[in-house]
Structures are given as C-alpha cells and as structure tokens.
Amino acid sequence: MNNHHSKIQIKISHRTMPEIIANLLRDAILSGEIKGGTPLRQEELAARFGVSMSPLREALKSLEGEGLVKFYPNRGAVVSELSAAEAREIFDIRLFLELGALELALPNLTGENLERARQILDQTDVETCCARWGEMNWRFHETIYLPAERPRLLALIQTLHNNVERYMRLYLSAMNYQAKSQAEHRELLQACVQKNVQAAQRVLRKHMEDASAVLVDYLKDKERIGG
C-alpha cells in the first residue's frame, strides 16, 4: 500500500513539475524580468530549477504553444519578440473572440460579477506598480467574460492577452495609456450594468482597436530603428 502511495506521489510530482517551471518562466517573461530575444539555455535552467532536461523541455514546449518562446535551429529556445504585423493579428483575433465572449456573458452577469469588476478597477486606479497593470487588466476582463461559461474560449483569450500585454505594460506605461484604458474599462462596465450588448461591444471594439494601434505604431518605430 505504501509503495502504491509513493508511486502515485511520484506520478503527480512528475506531471506537475513542467507546469511549475512553465508558470515561473511565464511570470518572468510577462513581468519583463526575462526580455524578448533572450536565449533560454536549457542546461542552466535545469540546474537552476534542480530538474532533469525532460520536464524543462516540456515546460518550454508549453510556452512555445502560448507564443512566448520560439525554437530556432542551432540557437535553441529564445523568448519571442513581437513584430508589428503579429501584434495586429493578435489583436484582431482577440477582438473576434472577446466580442463573442462578451455577448455570451452579458445576459448572465450578476450584481456580484459587476461589483467584483468595479473593485478591480478601483484597485488598478491606485496601483503604482506598472508591472501589475497587465495582471489587473486581465482580471477585469476575465471577471466580465467568466459568466459566458466557456473555459476554452477564456483560455484562448488569456494566452493572446499574455502575448501582447508585456509590451503594453513595459513600453507604454510612460505614455499615460493606462489612464485612457481605465476610462474605457469604466465605460465598458457601465454598458454591462445596463445589459446593453451593442453598447458594450462598441466600447470593447474601440478599446481594443486603440490599444492595437498604439502597440503597432510602437513596434513599427522599434523595427525602423532596428532596436
């Protein structure tokens, strides 16, 4: 019995280790601690996490699927860098998915959902650490979309959010974009309170198209100067 129990423990431990590593690396990439273009040297990372190469490779493959890591011949794994064209496409896909999520969720939104969303916006207003803005932005949108009861749809949206959010947070905080984003969030919340699908979708479309334009312009300038 004890032997059987230890086998179960080993099995659980083996299954979750790649997830733990992926979560730690994802957090470091999204916070900007590990920058785009940084090589992820597998031997060094395996030593740092105290694991064999197998769970580490599995974690990196998982992050590749999320668009945060790319594998290159002779270079190995590298933290991905977004091009202007990729950013535009990601926002286009997000817009389709989030307009749908909003339409599905809105009839099911409760007073509790709306109050939680309002509290997140209030917390964001007083948050001075720009490294937390992306997380809080996601929590606001997630709170509104959760009543759609489409977990796969939400997982897709969150992955796409992560692909662009590190750029929005790290490079655009100096442009006072956060204040504009918060005003649009409050407008979206008000449309949700009124259960007005068309108004909510109109605000969301403008919110995302503006964010896309700001990021695409930034990345075009970055590509032009080769930095």
Describe the 3D structure.
The chain is mainly alpha-helical. It is built from nine helices and two strands, in the order αααββαααααα. A two-stranded antiparallel sheet has the order 1-2. α6 packs antiparallel against α7. The longest helix has 29 residues. The protein is globular. The N terminus is likely disordered.
Oligomeric state of the chains present here: single chain
Terminal CA distance? 60 Å
Low-confidence stretches: 1-13
How is the largest sheet built, in terms of strand order? 1-2
Strand content: under 5%
Rg from alpha-carbon coordinates: 20 Å
Number of strands: 2
Binned, the helix content reads: over 70%
Mean pLDDT: 87
Number of helices: 9
What overall form do the CA principal axes indicate? globular
Keywords:
74% helix; mainly alpha; two-stranded antiparallel sheet; disordered N terminus
Which SSEs are present, and which pair or pack?
Layout: H1 2-30, H2 42-49, H3 53-65, E1 69-72, E2 76-79, H4 84-105, H5 111-126, H6 133-145, H7 151-172, H8 177-193, H9 197-224
Antiparallel strand pairs: 1-2
